[in-house]
Amino acid sequence: MKFFIDTANLEQIKEAQALGVLDGVTTNPSLMAKEGITGADNILKHYVAICNIVDGDVSAEVIATDFEGMVKQGEELAALHPQIVVKLPMISDGIKACKYFFDKEIRTNVTLVFSAGQALLAAKAGATYVSPFIGRLDDISTDGLKLIEEIRLIYDNYGYETQILAASVRHVMHIMNCAQIGADVITAPLSAIEGLLKHPLTDSGLATFLADYNKGNK
Ligand code: G3P
After folding, report:
1. Per-residue pLDDT reduced to its tens digit, 147-166
2. How much distance in Å is there from the Cα of 114 to the middle of ligand 1?
3. Which DSSP string corresponds to 101-157?
């Protein structure tokens, strides 16, 4: 399973990269705004800065909601750096743009996916990644992980190569459940990725080992 970090914060991206387990980055306009990155030029520069930190795929989202606008912005984003994946919203023109970019061999991530039907359509349009938002479904009392299961089954039934990128991942158990279901990728905040490290028996066991070593080496 690939690990992406879901942030536009360069320090957190560097930290995850230093851990040695990072396969890519996802961003969205809200995450950019959270870091105070505004204005088209600054946003484009920020994508390049992210690409220069990580080795893997970096999703960069179009703002246009019409086909021509998405194609124009997507081509501009893809030309920025070979690691860029064009992120498109799951709407009718987004699907048309997805097929357009597939034919041009430009990689895409179809975002804001909340149903298996949407994921099926994105796969048929040749999306590289599809991003179901599990946390936001949980937020409205709908089982986000069930959606990952449904998409996994459908993609396996037909051999679709579109990768399931579980998004809106909020905590360690989301990551662990996605791994058991067979999501291809999770994108999560640094706190959730680092949460995988933690176990109280690891901490107490290490403390005992060090104390015993120090006793014997006095
Ligand atoms: O990857 C999508 C993500 O950024 C949305 O997460 O926590 O805002 O639902 P959240």
Report:
1. 999 999 999 999 999 999 99
2. 12
3. HHHTT--EEEEEE-SHHHHHHHHHTT-SEEEEBHHHHHHTTS-HHHHHHHHHHHHHH
What are the residues whose beta carbons fall under 8 Å from the beta carbon of 52, sequence distance 6 or more? none
The residue type of 130 is: V
pLDDT at 218: 73
Q: Is 0.85 surpassed by the pTM of this model?
A: yes
Amino acid 217: pLDDT: 83
> Any bridge partners for residue 111, and if so which?
89
Cα–Cα distance for residue pair 86/183, rounded to 1 Å: 20
Whether 12 has a pLDDT exceeding 80, the answer reads yes
3 state SS of 196: coil
Cα 139 to ligand 1 centroid, rounded to whole Å:
12
- From CA 184, how far away is CA 100, in angstroms rounded? 24
